[in-house]
Fold this protein.
Amino acid sequence: MFSALFNSFESGMIYAIMALGVYLTFRILDFPDMTVEGSFVTGASVAAIMIVNGFSPVMATFCAMVAGFIAGTITGFLHTKGKINPLLAGILMMIALYSINLRIMGASNIPLLSQTTIITNIQDVWAKTGMDNMLNGLLSIVGLGDSLPKTWAILIVMLVVALIIQAGMSAFLKTEIGLALRATGDNEAMVKSFSAHTGNMKILGLAIGNALVAFSGSLVAQYNGFSDIGMGIGIIVIGLASVIIGEALFGSKTIARATLAVIGGAIIYRIVVTLALRVEFLETGDVKLITALIVVGALVIPKITDKQKEKSRKKRRLKEIQMRHGGSLSKGGEGYASVKSDL
C-alpha cells in the first residue's frame, strides 16, 4: 500500500508540470486547448527518438519542450491569424500531431528500458549522496520501516522541479506581460480597448502551456520506460481534473496559491486513482471512467457544499432578525417579508 502511494506521489509530481501547462491555457487564457493531447505525446516522442539515437537525455528533454512550444504557437496562429474557433483550432492541431508523432517515432511504441534517460541519470547521481540510507534509516526509527522505497531521488527531484516551475510561473504572471496575459483571459474586449495585442498574448500563453505539457510528456516517457502514440489520450481531462481538484481543496485567491493548488491537485488525483483501482470490482481499463467521476465530483461537490453553507447562513441570519424584532414576525406575512429582504 505504501509503495503504491509513493509511486502515486512520484508520478503526481511529473503530471503536475503538465497540469500547470493546462492551468495556463484553461484558467489564465480561458482557452479550451485540445492541443495538449497531441503535444504531450510530441514531447515523449521527441525525447524517446533522440535518446535511442544516442543524444543526451537532457538535450532530448529540452528539444521536447521546444517541440511543444512550436505546437502551441501553431495553435495560437490558427486561432488568432486564421480566425478559427479556439476549440476547433486545438482539435485540428491534435489530429495533425497524431500523424506527426508517428512520423517522429517511426513506430507506435519506442521502449526506453535499456536506455540511459534523465531518470536513470538522476538516480545514479542521487545514489552517490547516500540520502536514501539516511531517509530510510530515519523512517525505520519512527516505525515506518516496512515497504520503504529503494530511492527517493525521483520524488524529491521532481518536487523541486515542479516547485521551481510553479514559482517561475507565479513570478511571470505578475510581470507586465503576465498581467496582460491574465487580462486577455479575463476580459479580451477591455484589453483591446487599450490598444494591446491580445492575439500575441494568446500565442505566447499557448506556446508556454504546451511547452510545459511536452516537458511533462518527455519525463513521463522516461519515467515509464517507453513512449507510446496513445499515451496522450484523455490527458486533457487529467489536467483539468488536477486543476479543478486543486482549486476546490486548496483555493485560488492568489496566483501563487492557485499554482500550488494545481500541484496538490495532480498528486491527489493520482492517489485517488491508485486507491480506486485497489477496489476489487474495478480494473485498469476503468481509469478513464474513474477520471470522469473524479472531475464530476470535483465540479459538483463544491457547488452542493456552497449551497448548504448559504442555506445555513440564511437560517442563522433569520434567527438573529427574529430575535431582534421580537414577536413582529408572528403578525403575518408583512413582517416576514421585511425580514426576508434583510437576508
Q: What stands out?
A: The first helix runs from residue 2 to 28. The chain has a mean pLDDT of 86. The first strand starts at residue 109 and ends at 111. DSSP finds 14 helices and two strands in the chain.
